[in-house]
Each structure stands twice: as C-alpha cells, then as structure tokens.
Design goal:
single chain, 214 residues, alpha+beta, three-stranded antiparallel β-sheet, 5 helices, 12 strands, 16% helix, Flavin_Rdtase-like_dom, FMN binding, Flavin oxidoreductase
Amino acid sequence: MTTITSEQINDFDKRYRTNLINCLSGIKSMNLIGTKNTSGQTNLAIFNSVIHLGAHPPLMGFIQRPATVERHTFENIQETKYFTINSVTKEVHKQAHQTSARYERAESEFDETSLESTFINDFHAPFVAKSPLKIGLELADIIPIPVNNTQLVIGKVKLIQLNEEFLKEDGFLSLHDQGIVGGTGLDSYLSAKEIGRYSYAKPDLPLSKYSHNR
C-alpha cells in the first residue's frame, strides 16, 4: 500500500485529484433529480450526493456544487420549491450519465437522453417514468457550506411511488432486486448485491440474520 499526504494531493493534476477524492467515500447512490421551472421547462440531472437526513419527519438532501456555471436544477428548485429523486437502474444508466452534459437551459435532458418523463398526482416536478423508485419532495431548507461554497439542499418527502413486490413486512425496501445501481467516482456504475441483513445490534446479544422475505 502507499500513503499519500495532503501536500501530494494538492500537487496532483486537477482531474486526477478530482477522480481520486470522489472515490474515497465509497459506493454512492446514483439518482436523477427532476425539476420544472415556472415556464414549464423540464430539467433532469444525475447526482451522487443524495442522502437520508431523517425519517421523523421524512427528509432527504443532496449537495449542490458551487454556482460557477448555470445550475438549472438548483435554480428551478429555488424558483418552484419542488423536485423529484429517481433511482437509476442498469437499464438506463448510460442515459442517466448523459444528463451530466451541459445542455442549454431550453434543452430538456428528458428529450436529449430519451428518458421519458411522467407526472404523479399533479406534483409540480417531473419523475423518470422507468425509475422503479420515485420520490417527490418539497424544499425545506438550503444550508450553505462555506468551507467549499457548496450547499446542502434539504427536501421534505411528499410522495413515494414504488413497487410493492419489493416492500417487506417491516418497511424495508429491497433495492438490489430491482436492478438499482450505485457508483464510484464520477463515471463508474456498479450493480449492487445484498450480502446480508441483520438484527438490531445490542451489546449482549448475537446477531441474527433476517430471512429474505421478512
């Protein structure tokens, strides 16, 4: 193994450093965030920074990068207060990756990547039709992160559309059975496979493995 110091990291080529640092946090969720501005123009962009923030109340968030260029997703959320989070599957991962291209504001990534949009229950923002897990959110807060000029965008979960076949009796939702992929770095996509699900850990009790159908 090799040891890399912060001084060496700072001396790396920018692209090399970007690739390396983006791999350090491990396998991340890959999601498409859908928005629509007040003129009806839809937008779709892939994010690898979506996180769970709490279940009571249900909150999710993502990291918005610095506004050094136009950020159509972020601007639409600020304008309308609504957005969607859509899981990425193996079937559409190439199209999902293509949404990271810098399209013009008047160009919808849905159209440019041939990903069909859909609307659910009059929710303002568009969902990805082929996504097996669709989440509609209302903007709750935007928290600046001064150390690198990013922002944490927090949304309240307003609706969820999922396949009940993969929803277990205790509320656990199986993702790997649906072909949902993860990613590392900025351009690598991975298939996920569950290797175990276990009981709540307590100091004086051995772990027990849950059955697949729990």
